[in-house]
Amino acid sequence: xxxxxxxxxxxxxxxxxxxxxxxxxxxxxxxxxxxxxxxxxxxxxxxxxxxxxxxxxxxxxxxxxxxxxxxxxxxxxxxxxxxxxxxxxxxxxxxxxxxxxxxxxxxxxxxxxxxxxxxxxxxxxxxxxxxxxxxxxxxxxxxxxxxxxxxxxxxxxxxxxxxxxxxxxxxxxxxxxxxxxxxxxxxxxxxxxxxxxxxxxxxxxxxxxxxxxxxxxxxxxxxxxxxxxxxxxxxxxxxxxxxxxxxxxxxxxxxxxxxxxxxxxxxxxxxxxxxxxxxxxxxxxxxxxxxxxxxxxxxxxxxxxxxxxxxxxxxxxxxxxxxxxxxxxxxxxxxxxxxxxxxxxxxxxxxxxxxxxxxxxxxxxxxxxxxxxxxxxxxxxxxx
Length: 384
Prior knowledge:
Blueprint: H1 10-22, E1 28-35, H2 46-56, H3 63-71, H4 77-83, E2 93-97, E3 104-111, H5 112-115, H6 119-131, H7 137-148, E4 157-159, H8 168-181, E5 185-188, H9 191-197, H10 207-212, H11 223-235, E6 241-243, H12 249-256, H13 259-262, E7 267-270, H14 276-289, E8 298-301, H15 307-317, E9 322-327, H16 329-332, E10 342-349, E11 352-353, H17 369-378
Helix pairs in contact: 2-6
């Protein structure tokens, strides 16, 4: 389960600092849990899920964890002083079970500052509770060893698998093995693992940063661009990987067509493109059209990657642009029992709906179809 406040992805903290800096802390938001696998019965896991949520409320930051955060150049003393006294308010979390089907329902409601850190730990808890006593460790270990033995020399990958891992202890073993036996391994999104194993911590922004801007007082047509500009305002060029698929690639590149953004950001992250190689060529051509050498920029691919898929993308694009790969479930939960495909996404901000449309319809999430239609029309995506 969760033993540390740092057992979370870095981008949750970087976004929390940014919303604090921008004065968005009090925005009232709502997140909703969704299991994309049909027919999953959580009845046998529910007691463990409730226990894990209860344990979150007992956590606090320890001095060594605060010291570690101070060592990361992008966290300010102002923000860290807030975190020193931060605790999870589990009263903001509501999960229940459908007694007939075993379907799991869950919401998080409250101020953005006090809710933003819940997403990843809750998904960890659900993943571990469901996977408890399932699968064969020997087979999983052999899969891991095989993966590390067939990687191209220049291929770089990071651990993005916190939220859907098999268990905390298996996550530890995977990190230890990658660090010891793979020169291709460059770091982890998990701050606790980065601290414990002296690894580079990785992560910038997530979809909720751009989604929330749809209801933070900006014109809807300007919301994506303002989310990126506000990120620049906070980080001044640091943490410069822009997320490209809250609407879709067309809408992103239209907003990214500004020297402030395409020159200052170090690159982009792709997280829903059905054809990632085509996406890569589009980004390369975009930079070339701006007289920017694509090799000075980076594309981070992170959409449900297997190592085979990532290597295929690498072979296609590595001579054209900088590349990095975030491997998630297929790194930390590649056991004989398939991992759950589940998410917790922001669905409302300040009482109004927000939406992620994305390049892949199955990854979109919004509870208000009229708002989705309006958002598409604003971004000229009615045909999607």
